[in-house]
Write a structure and sequence with these properties.
Distance between the termini: 31 Å
Bound molecules: manganese (II) ion
Helix content: under 10%
Largest sheet: 8 strands, antiparallel, barrel
Order of helices and strands: HEEEEEEEEEH
Number of domains: 1
Length: 178
């Protein structure tokens, strides 16, 4: 099962993250982005495919500048329900740190082959056409395509959760020791 690795890495008695169960693929494919302040600050970019979220850790986060090629490292599949998750993962657990839901929406696949996935995102913050290009092993480049949304936003301007409107520090206070 594609969520076995996800489940093995986590102790669900300690973390509030959802348990990994496969779900039916949605009619409209979903995506989400989490801003995750763990041992390293990064963004997690997740795309629904075959009932799970294909997941990529993006150290610098996505960029609206088509000239930027942002490294996106494929990690273990996550359950679909993870698209609603934000909170605090205990420090000594896998991925320990603060997670805010940074963006969420639907997407469509425009093109794919062995190395390239081209998609259109319909999020609150991420919009328009993007490419994920496999450069080697689990390493991909996330690139904004040149369309009317190119250079629309600077992603660093968005410091709050799209779900709760809270910042990372506020999420930390709210969920710590709960
Ligand atoms: Mn992460």
């Amino acid at each position: 099962m594609s969520l076995d690795i996800y489940n093995k890495k986590r102790n669900f008695k300690k973390t509030k993250e959802p348990k990994g169960v496969n779900e039916k693929t949605s009619k409209r494919l979903k995506f989400c982005v989490q801003h995750h302040l763990a041992s390293h600050d990064h963004y997690d970019f997740r795309l629904e495919l075959n009932g799970v979220l294909k997941s990529f850790a993006v150290p610098k986060g996505p960029s609206y500048n088509p000239k930027d090629k942002r490294l996106a490292i494929m990690v273990e599949d996550h359950p679909l329900s993870y698209r609603n998750f934000e909170g605090v993962i205990p420090e000594d657990e896998y991925g320990g740190g603060v997670v805010i839901l940074w963006d969420r929406g639907t997407y469509k696949i425009n093109y794919y082959d062995e190395k390239v996935l081209k998609i259109t995102l319909y999020g609150k913050r991420l919009k328009g056409s993007w490419s994920l290009i496999n450069i080697e092993d689990n390493n991909f480049l996330l690139i904004k395509e040149n369309d009317k949304y190119a250079n629309l936003y600077k992603i660093n301007n968005f410091k709050t959760s799209i779900k709760s409107n809270l910042t990372m520090m506020q999420i930390k206070k709210k969920y710590q020791d709960k």
